[in-house]
Amino acid sequence: MKTCLVAGGSGFIGSWLCKDLLKKGYRVICADNNITGHKSNISNILSNSNFSYIEQDVSQPMKISEHVDYVFHLASPASPVHYQKYPVETLLANSLGTLNLLNLAKENRKRRLTGAMSIPTGHGRATTKEKDSRKHWYQAFQASHGLLSGYSTLTGHT
User: Fold this and answer.
1) What is the pTM of this model?
2) Is the CATH number of domain 3-155 3.40.50.720?
């Protein structure tokens, strides 16, 4: 049975991914620090023998002792409300978090890291607070993209 790590697995999208992967026959490790996710999103799968949950911030080194076949990076505040409230955490999840998950993927000899990011949009005139929020998102995106490009160059993986 193949094992998937879903970083941000107790968030809205992450919890759905965890449930879908379990239905498809994968073992799932969910890692989340729950600043925007909720353990209640995964309460109906906590007792599944092919599911394990660890409270983990991706900006800290990942402590996963078992082999991981797939790594999904969904661990970042993903709404304007959240990245206004947690601008530093957003940057850390998309910089150190991305690096930590890339290192975990490399340790497990995986060539791909799958991630998702929301895209800030606005309607009409944006307030200063909304513009600042988009700036936080864009900085997080740039950090993540830069790490992926640099890592790809160093390892020869795309």
Assistant:
1) 0.77
2) yes
